[in-house]
Amino acid sequence: MWHLYHFPLCPFSRKVQLALGEKGLGYELVTLYPWDADPNFRRLNPAGRVPVLHDPTKNFALIDSQAICEYLEETEDNRPLILGSARARAEIRRLVALFDESFYGDITGPLLHEKMKKRLVLRQSPDSRILRETQRLLHEHLDYIDWLIDNRRWIAGSQLSLADFAAAAQISVVDYLGDIDWKDHASARGWYRVMKSRPSFAPLLRQKMEGLPAPRHYADVNA
């Protein structure tokens, strides 16, 4: 069985979990916090970063969420997530990169630093200026998701794809941190409710970050 090294609020680990769940692949979670990577883990990934998908029986490790998802696409026929024509697959990859890079850089990464690392590791208060800026940028990203859903059935087109799971993984972390104001974003909110209702999403809704409880609405698929 695969071992997935993760920490509960890593959006990239969550993307891999969703891909594994959609494909019906079994895995065991191994929790590893980014500020406490042990030497054994660094033998798998010298950078000390999650996610890492490891097969201990074959002594084989995959590093980087997109590399892992691409590997699963190439080796597992069940439930393709990068699908359609060459043009459609390119659009899926474009949007995955958008959420992995831009959304994370603008929203998820800063919030994790301000609301998780400062609280649990640095013992500092969050910077209100940074929190206000992430809220402003979050509304811009949600506006784009609204537009995508208003003009397509799913994020990248007519079929559910890895782009939906990349987006939902990022948003789920922001939602856990209690920072989403869905006002004026009905389309994005409706799409996210559908994503939360998928069986592959259930393990994410059960995961908790020690010392940082989720808001009451977090695990409610109708919230």
Structural commentary:
By secondary structure, the protein is an alpha+beta fold. The protein has 8 helices and 4 strands; from the N terminus they run βαβαββαααααα. A 4-stranded mixed beta sheet has the order 2-1-3-4, with helices on one face. The protein is globular and about 50 Å long.
- Strands ordered across the widest β-sheet: 2-1-3-4
Question: What's the overall average pLDDT, rounded?
Answer: 95
State the end-to-end distance.
34 Å
How does the overall form come out from the CA principal axes? globular
Helix-strand pattern: EHEHEEHHHHHH
Helix fraction by DSSP (H/I, runs of at least 4): 40-55%
| Class based on secondary structure composition and strand pairing | alpha+beta
Radius of gyration from CA coordinates:
17 Å
Low-confidence stretches: none
Share of residues in strands: 5-15%
Task: Tell me the major beta sheet.
Answer: 4 strands, mixed
List the helices and strands and how they pair.
Elements lengths: L1 E5 L4 H12 L4 E5 L7 H6 L7 E4 L4 E4 L1 H11 L10 H37 L5 H24 L10 H15 L9 H11 L5 H5 L17
Parallel strand pairs: 1-2
Antiparallel strand pairs: 1-3, 3-4
Structure, briefly:
This protein is an alpha+beta fold and 223 residues long. The chain has helices at residues 11-22, 39-44, 65-75, 86-122, 128-151, 162-176, 186-196, 202-206; strands spanning 2-6, 27-31, 52-55, 60-63.
